[in-house]
Design goal:
By secondary structure, the chain is an alpha+beta fold. It contains 11 helices and 9 strands. It folds into 2 domains: 86 residues, 2-Layer Sandwich (Phosphorylase Kinase, domain 1); 165 residues, Transferase(Phosphotransferase) domain 1 (Transferase(Phosphotransferase), domain 1). The structure holds adenosine-5'-diphosphate and magnesium ion. Adenosine-5'-diphosphate binds next to strand 2, strand 3 and strand 6. InterPro entries: Kinase-like_dom_sf, Prot_kinase_dom, Protein_kinase_ATP_BS, Ser/Thr_kinase_AS.
């Protein structure tokens, strides 16, 4: 890249038409705190990709670079229908980049901003796909650590039974990688703190259960229209993750079945030991009817402290939302 033009100069058009590594930049898709994502053309393989260029500050940080390379490799090795395939992760002219599958659609952040709370059945379908991606990553020894709506890409699904296909992205680009490298000043690179687990905040070792917490925060927001904790500043928000009880979901959105409160109370427990052991276990408990939906292989869910599931119509029938009817 020639001097004077960086991906972060604030003028997205500057890079359009330019070539970076083996890619020609076509348009800017979006930007987060530490990267800009472009739609680009892979000149070698003649295909469209998403090209993520990381802030140059990150490339200058050795610890971050090593971790980026390592985790990108691990993520690239996981072949999973709900994880965005990474084609290449490398460095050129001092810029770290990742080339990955271009997902034609929206991310969950935009979807929630546009549509507000989702129909429960939609939220659970999305949750199930993200959960399967996370559990697969965990089985490969990789903890995501930055589960948030912006990292959930939603594409059109295959048919009316699968109206959306969801991809999880951004392994290895986590707040943890940043704090390890000293980029801790909240707000500088670290994005949202709405989904961060208590043990991440206190710097304890994390495992897959920190992603259970993050996923639960995301699904809570999908259903309630707001994340579990809303505070005026970052310090108060971090304190709340560590100490406050999340408001029951049914308070934020009356009409949701009360059993969901217990499910979220468990998934959002402060101590990882008290949470569901896997993301799949969390989502299984969210489902309204035994054997329904995606989890027909699961036995009926045991709901501690709530009446047994009766063979009734789905408990979240909601006329406000478009049901997956004919057409
Ligand atoms: N593989 C991809 N295909 C299509 N769009 C993508 C892809 N990866 C990221 N994006 C878009 O680029 C935006 C910016 O990504 P990112 O820099 O990771 O910021 P954040 O995750 O904070 O939103 C995302 O919100 C998403 O809409
Ligand atoms: Mg992202």
């Amino acid at each position: 890249m020639t001097h004077g033009t960086t991906p972060f100069s604030g003028r997205p058009s500057e890079l359009v038409g330019r070539r970076i590594a083996g890619y020609r930049i076509e348009s800017e898709i979006g930007r987060g705190g530490m990267a800009v994502v472009y739609r680009a053309h892979d000149l070698r393989l003649d295909r469209t990709v998403a090209l993520k260029l990381l802030a140059p500050e990150l490339a200058r940080n050795d610890v971050f670079r090593k971790r980026f390379t390592h985790e990108s490799r691990v993520a690239a090795a996981i072949d999973h229908p709900h994880i965005v395939p990474v084609f290449e992760a490398d460095e050129t002219d001092g810029v770290l980049y990742i080339a990955m599958r271009y997902v034609d659609g929206s991310d969950l952040r935009h979807l929630l901003d546009r549509e507000g709370p989702l129909p429960p059945a939609t939220a659970v379908r999305i949750a199930a796909q993200v959960a399967s991606a996370l559990d697969a990553a965990h089985e490969n020894g990789l903890v995501h650590r930055d589960v948030k709506p912006g990292n959930v890409l939603v594409a059109r699904g295959t048919d009316s039974d699968h109206p959306e296909h969801v991809y999880l992205t951004d392994f290895g680009l986590t707040k943890k990688s940043l704090s390890l490298t000293g980029f801790t000043s909240v707000g500088q690179f670290v994005g949202t703190l709405d989904y961060v687990a208590p043990e991440q905040i206190s710097g304890q070792p994390v495992d897959g259960r920190c992603d259970v917490y993050g996923l639960a925060c995301v699904v809570y927001e999908c259903l309630a229209g707001r994340p579990p904790f809303l505070r005026d500043d970052d310090v108060a928000l971090l304190w709340a993750h560590q100490n406050a009880d999340p408001p029951p979901l049914t308070e934020a959105r009356p009409g949701l079945p009360p059993y969901m409160d217990a499910v979220f109370a468990r998934a959002l427990a402060k101590s990882p030991e008290e949470r569901h052991p896997t993301c799949g276990a969390f989502v299984a408990e969210l489902r309204p009817t035994p054997g329904g939906g995606l989890g027909s292989a699961h036995p009926p869910t045991e709901l501690a402290g709530t009446p047994a599931l009766a063979p009734q119509p789905p408990r979240w029938a909601e006329p406000v939302f478009h049901p997956p009817g004919p057409g």
